[in-house]
Structures are given as C-alpha cells and as structure tokens.
Write a structure and sequence with these properties.
With 306 residues, this protein is of the alpha/beta class. 45% of the residues lie in helices and 16% in strands. It folds into two domains: 227 residues, TIM Barrel (Alpha-Beta Barrel), CATH 3.20.20; 60 residues. Strand 4, helix 4 and strand 5 form a beta-alpha-beta unit. The relative contact order is 0.11.
C-alpha cells in the first residue's frame, strides 16, 4: 500500500512570524502585518518571570480577536516544564488554530497531546504543529510525520528549529547550511510522505536581508512551504519567494488546458510544445494553480481591509 499522500495545504504558510507573547506592543501590530500565520510564543522567547503575563496577553488577544484572517498558533513550553500544564489549559481555553510543540522527539509526543485534546473535548479545528529541533526528531522524522495520518493525530505541520539542532550536534553556523542539508531534506521528505506542511527554520539576522532572501530561495528549492520569521522586516521575501513564479503559473495553466481538452480525455501522457507531459504533471499543475488562487484571494481580502 502506498503511503504517499497528496499535498493539498488548506492554508498559506509562506511567512510564519513568531512573536514573544510577552511583547504586547508586537502583538498590537499584528493587524497591520502581511504574514500568513503567527506563532505566539510562550517558550524560548519568554523569560520565566514573564510566562504568566505572556499567557494573560494571549488570553486578551483571543478575547478581542475578530474574524480570523490568518492562522494563529500558540507555542507552549515543553512537557517537562513546570509551565506546560498552564500553557495547555490556556490552549483549551483560547482554542487557537494550532498548538506548536517544542522539542518533539518521537511520535508519542504528538499522540499524547492529541489524546489530551480529545479527552478535553477540544475542537477538531485545533491542530498540532511540531518543532523538529532535536537529533531524535530527525532520526524519527518519518514516524513523527505519520502521526498526521493516525486517527485523531491532529498533526498538520513540521517546523524546523536549527538553533537547537546546531547546539545539540555541534554543527557550526554556515550561511549555505551545507552540513545541515541532509537533515533538512529528511524533514521535507517525511512531511511530503504524509501530506504535511513543512516550514523552514528562522534566520537570526533580521537586519541583513540579502542572505535571508538567499536562504528563502534555497528553502523553496528544497521543497519547503514557507519560512519561520522572527521580525516583521522578514515578511516580504518569503511572501514573494514561496509562491508560483509567473513562468511556473503559465506552464501550469498550459498543462491544465491541454489535459482538459476533449482529445486528451483518458490519456496519461500528451505532447505540449514538443515535450512529453504526463498526467502526474497535470496533478502538480493543479496544485500550483490552487496555490496561486489562494494567494490572489488573500491579497484581495487584504486590499478590502486596507
């Protein structure tokens, strides 16, 4: 039995901005930002003495939140932390679009939280995202991703965390990410095998945007859906790069038109502009066109709000 699942994301996740939930000023600016999704962080970015206030800020944000125009994800502290229970109680109270679990190392880390959510009657819309930031996470990437296809598993998205991975493996910083490449591709492969979205790691230097843009180009070429960000200045590049180019969209439209013609009915391969194109390319073209429609719809909605 094949374990390949079609990759049909329901949400745009080109730019996923992570903000410390303790930073109320940053939260207040969210309405003016064009990022596709927002992570309100209770973990690394929030000092111990600020955790209670950060949870209060999230509670107030959801109480005042109007019609959802983007995904909101809450990153909780790891399960061994003394803050975890309060974080998960907050998740049940506020019902974000997803809870992001740090330091995931095995499939059970996902399934245990899925059971907890189900036992507490959490809405099915409350999904799970997983930080892939430990050596064990890389070794277990396949089984972790498979949780997204386990009944009640809730897993939707894998997010790479290179800061922790570099620390745990002693791989030094390298702008080309040369020695991290096999691990990054392993995460992408696991996500694709089970139909999940996969988000590339943060870039810590938010002032020098040229290397950041190059990293976005590299991430898209590797198959990532988007980029995790730490500053609003980083939003523009992934929104441009993690979308179909005009050339890709034109080619996709040509393939769709050719396979939709009556004479192509029932054929698994046809010639287009001197090139043999298979039906699998037709399916891929459909995904590209769908993604372009999602982006256009989002831009239209943003224009109406402006």
């Amino acid at each position: 039995m094949s374990l390949n699942f079609d990759h049909h994301p329901q949400h745009l996740r080109r730019s996923v901005l992570c903000l410390p939930a303790s930073n109320q000023r940053a939260i207040d600016k969210l309405a003016s930002l064009d990022c596709d999704a927002v992570i309100l962080d209770l973990e690394d970015a929030v000092a111990d003495e600020e955790k209670d206030q950060a949870r209060a800020n999230i509670r107030a944000f959801f109480k005042a939140r109007g019609k959802a125009d983007r995904e909101i994800i809450v990153r909780v502290n790891e399960a061994s932390s003394r803050h975890y229970d309060a974080d998960m109680a907050l998740v049940l109270e506020c019902v974000p679009d997803a809870v992001l679990l740090p330091k995931v190392s095995a499939q059970d880390d996902i399934l245990d939280v899925a059971v907890f959510l189900s036992d507490n009657d959490a809405a099915e819309t409350l999904r799970i995202w997983a930080m892939m930031e430990t050596p064990l996470a890389i070794l277990n990437a396949g089984p972790i991703a498979e949780a997204g296809r386990t009944s009640g598993g809730r897993l939707d998205c894998l997010v790479v965390g290179l800061n922790d991975l570099r620390k745990d493996t002693a791989v030094p910083f390298d702008p080309a990410r040369t020695y991290l490449m096999p691990w990054l591709m392993q995460i992408v492969l696991a996500a694709r095998a089970f139909g999940l979205t996969v988000i590339d790691s943060v870039s810590n230097d938010f002032k020098d945007l040229a290397p950041f843009e190059a990293e976005c180009v590299q991430g898209r070429a590797m198959g990532f859906d988007g980029k995790m960000l730490i500053h609003p200045a980083q939003i523009d590049a992934p929104n441009r790069i993690f979308q179909p180019s005009p050339e890709e969209l034109a080619e996709a439209d040509a393939i769709i038109a050719a396979f939709s013609a009556p004479e192509a009915r029932g054929k698994n391969a046809i010639a287009i502009a001197g090139r043999m194109v298979e039906r699998l390319h037709f399916e891929q073209a459909g995904r590209i066109a769908a993604r372009a429609r999602m982006i256009r719809a989002q831009m239209t909605n943003a224009g109406k709000k402006a």
